Description:
Radius of gyration: 20 Å
Helix content: 25-40%
Amino acid sequence: MSIQEDIFAKIQEFETIIIHRHQRPDPDAYGSQCGLATILRANFPQKKVYQVGENVHGLAWIAEPEKIADEVYKDALVIVTDTANQPRVDDQRYLNGKYLIKIDHHPNEDPYGEICWVNDHASSCSEMIVDLVNGVEQLTLPDEAARMLYAGIVGDTGRFMYDATTPHTFRVAAQLTEHHFDVAHINRRLDSIALPVARLAAYVYENLQLTENGAAYIVLSNELMHKFELKDASTAPIVPLIGKVIGVKCWTIFVQQKDGTFRLRIRSKGPVINELAKEYGGGGHPLASGAFMQDEKGIPAYIKKLDAIATAYTGEKND
């Protein structure tokens, strides 16, 4: 029996199913979590299916999470999607259920759950949810779930520009677009930015620092974010923009948090950067990771390490 069938057997077994995803969610977190919830509601209308976590206004067009009482977790099946490490799970009540399943596409350095299905070759967790449906004959895919999952795939592949995009990714995306939803609207929505974010983008391009070896960085302080009337979550659209600059191999955006610490958004067009992220309390994909820093004193040493990674890289993806 395949792991998809194992997961389906557990879904059949439980009457209450609660689906979690990671903190500070992106379109794939929302798409995989809420897409799976929508699939289960359509196929098992008698079951109680919930999607929980922080409500991010900018992603409410994909779906919205629900608030549930603690007692709902009793005898429930909990599924966590798109979350590599347990501390990143949004709403720590995920441990209060009777049975736990992990579905994820990040490197499996924290294999939690009684069933742990990880495919770090998948472009996104949303792609894996489609694979789940395709791997279980009894499951059908409703149009609304297809819309959410398509948004997740497009979001996590950077509109199919990132290295994790495979022929299978395109086949899955094509399958989803056969359903009834406005594909162009999803693409436009994911490509749109608010005016304050556009102004921040202009600032980033104007003040971007780039070493001779192709390591780029920008520091976004609390004062600067206040000036642009933006919060940390609003910096997500800025992250891929730096990769458009010719000569940039890898880059980091330092976003100061309210407590003075920094969140590091680390990306690359070739050099492997997730090991560097681990040094700073983070991790992720080889070309897309996150980390943390206590204060700005650590930035110069970090930049030297990022520059060394860029220097050592001899691949062709440095245009």
